[in-house]
Design a protein that fits this description.
The complex is a heterodimer. Chain A is α/β, with parallel strands linked by helices. Chain A is 34% helix and 24% strand. In chain A, strands 6-7-8-3-9-10 form a six-stranded mixed beta sheet, with helices on both faces. By secondary structure, chain B is mainly alpha-helical. The radius of gyration of chain B is 22 Å and the shape is elongated. The chains are: A alpha/beta, B mainly alpha. The interface between A and B is medium-sized, with 27 and 20 residues.
């Protein structure tokens, strides 16, 4: 349980002359759910993308167990198979059916037997309530359904860790729930996950640990209770206030 | 029913000659298509590359071909190459050269458009699944590009077939030229032949291009 899966050390990321991430340290343990919150442009998505080698970094290191993750390095193809990632813009492959979307990487990258993977894929699809959509094309699905397929697609690679980059940000409100439910279910199964989200209620429910990032730095971290209920830093408080609404003064309608 | 002069079609081998003219037109466009599509694929891929000088040259080529009326290009190759290089290509060869240059230019632009229209997320989610660059191209990018490309390139092919009607200007005896000859030869006996013959030509062009358009429409719907 205490085994560390992902380690980020002194990570620094600059884009042109702007510092996006500044000296970020993070260790994710097996079975842990880490939720990252923060204002837009704070670097939280970038951090997640760095963890999958999608962004070049300037200094510091990211390791999955003992293997370094570095954009452009040779082992990236190997290591990415152990990292599942789901993006904001449900990027299924539009020319493939739901099932083929899921089967592509396990059969072509991992060279697993198609029959086995298919059975597993159908089981997973059933778990997320989409078994009857296996033969549909992405364009025939709603946003929430696409996102659930994207999660199944990532799961079918049997990754050691799952990264979620604002997966509900592009969805209509009534579809957010169905996707978050799937993620809650994964948390119950003790999957290791790093989640970037703006859904504070969800963060509270799912997280073992919450990180608040601002201006490329981890400003505060702790249990959901500590960070979301009793933030120590003023900046965290300010950010969380965005999600609160004061009741409009009693209005007298005469 | 007014006299359309259709009877001239059955005189001698007139109908066969007309079909032969269509054959010439189709042969020229087919050869040009077969050469220009792979060429366009290559040039279009290069146009999305990083080499700035190469991209500039290709852009210049594309714009030049686009701006020039096809007729001017035909004259340039047919008459110009004699003056410039002392080489006299036949009308048909000149037509094939011009149509190939034109087809390759237009095709390269279609390929470029189709390639850059694949969102960057498609590459990223393939990468994130552990696909190599080659696998990403084989299983994700190329199938999508081809789907976008086929209806567009079929359109180009029908345009090329139709534009062969210009090559009579450099002395190639294609369908329209044959038609003019038939009409001229029968001017006194069947003065209305112009109507009938051009009507037949209309139908023949239609029959040549329509199935291709249908195919494009079918593929478009299938691969939406």
């Amino acid at each position: 349980m205490e085994e560390t899966i992902l380690t980020v050390k002194h990570l620094k990321k600059e884009y042109e002359d702007k510092t996006i991430l500044n000296d970020v340290d993070l260790a994710v343990k097996k079975g842990e759910v880490v939720v990252i919150i923060g204002p837009s442009g704070c670097g939280k998505s970038t951090l997640l993308r760095c963890m999958n080698g999608l962004e070049k970094t300037q200094s510091g290191s990211i390791k999955l167990r003992e293997e370094a993750i570095e954009a452009g390095s040779g082992n990236l193809v190997q290591i990415r198979q152990k990292i599942g990632m789901v993006f904001q813009n449900y990027e299924l492959f539009p020319h493939l059916t739901v099932l083929d979307n899921i089967l592509l990487a396990p059969t072509k990258v991992q060279k697993r037997d198609k029959k086995d993977v298919k059975a597993e894929a159908l089981k997973l699809l059933e778990r997320v309530g989409l078994k009857d959509k296996a033969g549909s094309y992405p364009r025939q699905l709603s946003g929430g359904q696409k996102q659930r397929v994207a999660i199944v697609r990532a799961l079918c690679m049997n990754p050691e860790i799952l990264l979620f980059d604002e997966v509900t940000a592009a969805l209509d409100p009534e579809m957010v729930r169905e996707v978050l439910d799937v993620m809650l279910e994964l948390a119950r199964q003790k999957r290791t996950m790093v989640i970037v989200t703006h859904e504070m209620q969800f963060a509270r429910a799912v997280a073992d640990r919450v990180l608040f990032i601002d201006q490329g730095k981890i400003m505060e971290e702790g249990t959901p209770e500590e960070v979301l209920e009793h933030p120590k830093k003023e900046r965290t408080q300010q950010f969380l206030n965005i999600f609160q609404f004061e009741k409009v003064q009693e209005r007298k309608i005469s | 029913m007014p006299d359309l002069g259709l009877d001239v079609l059955w005189k001698g081998s007139n109908l066969l000659r007309l079909l032969g003219g269509l054959g010439v037109a189709l042969r020229i466009s087919l050869i040009a298509v077969v050469i220009s599509i792979p060429l366009g694929l290559l040039l279009g891929t290069l146009m999305t590359g990083k080499n700035v000088i190469l991209k500039f040259i290709l852009k210049l080529y594309l714009e030049f071909i686009r701006i020039m009326p096809q007729l001017v290009l035909l004259f340039m190759v047919f008459f110009g190459s004699t003056r410039m290089f002392g080489w006299q290509p036949s009308g048909e060869l000149s037509a094939i050269i011009v149509f190939t240059l034109w087809g390759a230019a237009e095709m390269s632009d279609l390929v470029r458009g189709a390639l850059i229209s694949i969102p960057v997320h498609q590459y990223e989610s393939s990468e994130a699944l552990g696909l190599t660059k080659v696998q990403t191209y084989c299983y994700v990018v190329i199938p999508q590009t081809v789907r976008r490309l086929i209806p567009l390139s079929i359109n180009l092919i029908t345009r090329m077939i139709k534009t062969t009607s210009l090559i009579l200007m450099i002395g190639v005896v294609e369908m329209i030229k044959v038609a003019q000859q038939i009409i001229e030869a029968n001017r006194t006996t069947s003065p209305n032949a112009a109507f009938g013959i051009y009507l037949v030509i209309f139908l023949l062009y239609f029959l040549a291009c329509w199935p291709i358009s249908l195919l494009a429409k079918y593929l478009e719907r299938k691969w939406r």
